[in-house]
Fold this sequence. Notes:
The protein is an alpha/beta fold. The chain contains 5 helices and 14 strands. The strands form 4 sheets. A 7-stranded mixed β-sheet has the order 2-4-3-5-9-10-13, sandwiched between helices. Strands 6-7-8 form a 3-stranded antiparallel β-sheet.
Amino acid sequence: MTSLKRRTFLGAASALALPAPAIQAQGRTSGVALVIGNSKYQWEAQLPNVKRDAPDVARRFQEFGLKVDLVQDAGRDAMRQAIDRLSAASRGAQMAAFYYAGHGASWNRGTYLVPVDADLSSPNMVERLVPGGAFRDGFAEAANHLVAFDNCRNNPADGWRQRQEDNRAAGKQTETGAKDTDPPNTVVLFATVPGRAALDGPAGQNSPFCAALLRQLAEPSVDVPSLPGRLRRDLLIATQGRQVLWNRNNYRGSFAITGPADPKARTQGAGDPS
Length: 274
């Protein structure tokens, strides 16, 4: 069976999981967030660092005041149900955010998320995946949107379409879900460029993308439209140029998410040595 790798491992160890399915908001930005972390796959390689990444991002969203739905090790039906909940909760919200960590794939210029019960050895495996844009229409009614995909974007069929995906990435062709199809005031962050794998990071720590995102969200106030530029530089430095952020951004103005004014009120990220 072909193995699909979300991120290239630099080590292997278990990470602390946050068992709570939901986290209540306590900051100053009104809105909702869905965080999905898939680690325990039935047919694919396990992703132990995801157990740390998803809860850490969920806590950070919470600190900005978002009501967070944290879903871990979800099958296809559970992922769809979580996306439906986000869609319903985001109506009229000031902010809607989505973060996914797990296996991912690029297929016909689209990004797909891999549920834990997906069997990628099947020729029709794409039918069991969740399109990366499945949430787009549902949460469009929120005023502002932040989306982050921490997954590989290569093709699961080793070789037979990988070159095509690499060529598309090199040519900077627009993928499905292009900029003009996103709701207004949307930033979409991809851990890596189309056709490429993403690093998993040292054992027991956050992935490089997740760690960089947490660092950028560490300030009491974060300007969402300018986040991609800062995050790209941070990620390039952290990975010594091995991983390049890909993003879409259709903001025409500024919008800041704000958390507790006192930094001491914030929780420490999992990667913080303190």
